[in-house]
Amino acid sequence: MRLGLAEFERNGFVILESVLPISLLERSIRECESELNGIIGTRNLLKRDWCRRLAIDVIMRSPVRDLAGNSIAPVQCTYFAKTERRNWLVPLHRDLKIPVRERIVASGWKRWSVKEGNLYVQPPNVVLEQMIAVRIHFEDNSDQNGALQVIPGSQKSSSTNRERTLCHVSRGGALVMRPLILHASSKIIKGQRRVLHFLFGPTVLPDGAEWPSFD
After folding, report:
1. CB 198 within 8 A of CB 133
2. pLDDT in tens, 112-138
3. In order of start, what are the domains of the chain with their CATH numbers?
4. What's the CA gap between 109 and 8, in Å, rounded?
5. 212 with 100: CB under 8 angstroms?
6. How far apart are the first and last CA of the chain?
7. Which one, 7, 64, 191, 209, has the greatest CB density within 10 A?
8. Contact predicate 184/92, CB 8 Å
9. Neighbours of 105 (CB within 10 A)
């Protein structure tokens, strides 16, 4: 079995070291800082050419590519910038929404909403089970700066009573996870936590649904 795949399928997450070389990491940091002008986050980064190029680079890197399977279409990139001054707690949850081009009428597609001008929906579980998120970290992630907490295996279970695991990710590394895994994060005690959260899905969606266009 390919590197990390058994662990990923069992636990719903895996931590990878040095996914981005330092030069590319530094370039991505500069792009975010110059274009986003200090805001704490946005869901719309795939509208930037540099981010679309980076998404393809990320998903094609080994072993990210091995973990992704057929879910290689970049569909969203969210930027988080959590600092001691701009700080928040994220309760335990699953990521259940995906962006789509337009509204459809089909069984299992529900909870429609608009965020930052884009249409979002909770699709059937058969879609969510194929999604993969790749979280690229701009600095070392620890207990002090809000490391993500996950419940291993919860992408396949409804139980919330299992022990949480803190995901310590190094600078330029990635936390690769299934969006259905239960996850949370604490407020920052010291430092900052900046993350590019890429979401990838299957190239073709069921029921005539389509991913948004970023051209």
Report:
1. yes
2. 999 999 999 999 999 999 999 999 999
3. 5-202 (2.60.120.620)
4. 27
5. yes
6. 37
7. 64
8. yes
9. 7
